[in-house]
Design goal:
alpha/beta; six-stranded mixed sheet; Arc Repressor Mutant, subunit A; single chain; 11 helices; Rossmann fold; 16% strand
Length: 387
């Protein structure tokens, strides 16, 4: 039986789901030890997304109202417990910056798959883009007794925060799945410089003579690393580099998926007013590229005839855009699975090195013009990787 939530209520849907489950526990309709269903079953019951259910359940777990058993579902906790007793259950805490972020949702899927195979419970928290909440969630999970932590930090400095530094110095098993520039900290992720190289290399091979880069903003290290790859490709193929073709969005703190999309959209609305424009653009992330594409199409700009576009991430939405987006694929699910393997090895005292770097690939769709323009040399496959 589906339960109707109030769309007019100022409370978000996840809070309404959380409140309804807690009310049923308080009223005795759900008793300690009762199974309340899986994420999928609760999603159908409340007619909301699985992400909404996960956020509600995560809050209930953090407050000690429920706990999860891998592959078996969600259960009501004993009311006398001040915190969950995880001493008899293998568990990993997952600290995310934004449950709605399409890239990290794919990482989470890989984490959950591998955790189930290895017999781990996964506790998920959402830091809601607040650094102080991120630190409190790390502390909370450690107090609960988790065996390890997977962290996607929201710090745009891409270096270890004081709290992550503390966790590292104590030798607690953890791994970062968001980019961190400090080489001594434990991280699994994509070769970002190679990704930028692949994007620019492809546009060059398609036949573009001038290629720009839509940069996250001055001081954004991750975006700068992708730019380094872009610059290397231009240099190797003798394509002129023009600093006027580097467009800085100067984002300070993109707090949500919608914010990133809007950054690209706002830039796209200004495109026609730019006096000197490149023939193609490499955009530092798909969310910005999709916002850019929407604005350009509204402005009557043809993609890829007027401008070719390549994004970065290969989020699900990229394939279903009005002009399917050519993009650099980050192996998100593999990253998630490997993060669990790394945690397991660190728990077992096995040294796996500080950084595990996976190679990206290029996914060719319609936004780059590969099917319309003559390639520089040879034919272009669906995926290509530079040596």
């Amino acid at each position: 039986m589906k339960r109707e939530l109030s769309l007019s209520s100022p409370s978000p849907l996840y809070a309404q789901v959380e409140r309804d489950i807690r009310r049923k526990i308080k009223d005795g309709k759900l008793k300690p030890g009762d199974q309340i269903g899986s994420y999928s079953e609760l999603s159908k019951e409340y007619s909301v997304s699985i992400i909404t259910v996960k956020k509600a359940v995560s809050n209930l777990i953090n407050k000690g109202d429920v706990f999860t058993r891998v592959g078996k579902g969600i259960y009501v906790a004993e009311p006398s417990r001040e915190k969950l007793d995880l001493s008899k259950h293998k568990s990993i805490g997952l600290v995310l910056q934004d449950l709605n972020h399409p890239y990290f949702s794919m990482v989470v899927h890989g984490i959950e798959e591998r955790a189930y195979e290895l017999g781990y419970n996964i506790l998920i928290s959402n830091s809601s883009n607040r650094i102080e909440k991120e630190e409190s969630q790390i502390e909370h999970f450690r107090n609960l007794g988790v065996d390890g932590l997977v962290i996607a930090s929201l710090s745009l400095q891409y270096k270890a925060t004081d709290y992550i530094r503390k966790v590292h110095e104590e030798g607690f098993p953890y791994v970062m799945v968001s980019y961190i520039h400090d080489p001594e900290y434990w991280y699994v992720g994509t070769n970002q410089e190679l990704g930028g190289y692949l994007a620019a290399q492809h546009l060059i091979k398609v036949g573009y003579k001038s290629i720009g880069y839509l940069h996250a903003g001055r001081g954004n290290i991750l975006s700068e690393i992708r730019k380094n790859g872009y610059y290397r490709a231009l240099t190797e193929y003798d394509v002129p580099y023009d600093s006027k073709f580097i467009f800085y969005l100067d984002e300070e703190h993109p707090a949500s998926v919608a914010d990133r999309f809007k950054l690209g959209y706002d830039f796209g609305r200004k495109w026609k007013s730019i006096e000197k424009k490149p023939e193609a653009l490499f955009v530092y992330t798909d969310l910005v590229a999709l916002g850019l594409q929407k604005a350009l199409l509204e402005e009557g700009v043809s993609i890829p005839d007027d401008v070719g576009i390549v994004g970065f991430d290969d989020i699900v939405m990229a394939a279903y855009a009005n002009i399917p987006l050519t993009t650099v694929h980050q192996p998100a699910q593999k990253t998630g699975r490997m993060s669990v393997d790394i945690i397991q090895k660190r728990i077992d005292g096995i040294d796996v090195g500080n950084r595990t770097i996976l190679n990206p690939t290029l996914v060719v769709r319609d936004s780059c013009g590969a099917s319309k323009r003559a390639p520089l040399s040879g034919s272009l496959s669906r995926e290509e990787v530079a040596p």
